[in-house]
Structures are given as structure tokens and as C-alpha cells.
Design a protein that fits this description.
mainly alpha; 84% helix
Length: 101
Amino acid sequence: MRKWKVKGYSNIAKSKKKENQNNQILYLKTQIKYLTNELRLTKEEYETATKNYFDMYSNMGKRIHERISESQKLHKLLKEKSQQLQIMLDSSPGMIYFKDG
């Protein structure tokens, strides 16, 4: 028996196979592009987070001193107001009392 080859069919099969391979290559190139972009973003995010951490760490002492200073000023103001209130209560001739609501 003789096998008959159909040239047109063979060429169509080869061209479809080649087209399929080209589509797969395009898909893989696209995936590589997106993964590269994600890695770049991840690297940038890491660098930004590291920079922010070191900025916060280096400014921590300054922020602590600012908050302590502010707290001391507020404590001094509260003490003065408390003394003023005590003087007013002590010098008032009327009877003053607190009533819980």
C-alpha cells in the first residue's frame, strides 16, 4: 500500500503549530515583563520602607524630647491652674461643694 501525502494539509498543520508556538512565546514574554515590573516595584517598596524605618528611628530621640518638653509644659500649666482654683475656693466666703449627677 502506498501512503498519500497531502501537501496542503501538512503546510496548514505546520503553520498552525508555528502560530501556536509564537502565541506561547508572546505569552511568556508578557509574563516575564509583568514579573520584572513586580520585582522592580517590590524592590522599590523595600527600599522605601527601609528608608522610612531609619528616618523614624533616627528622629525618635528628637520626638521623645519634644513630647517630654510638651508634657512638662502642660504639667506646669495644670499645676498653676490647680493652685489658682485652690486659691479661689479658699478665699470664697460661700460654701462650695461638688454634686455627682
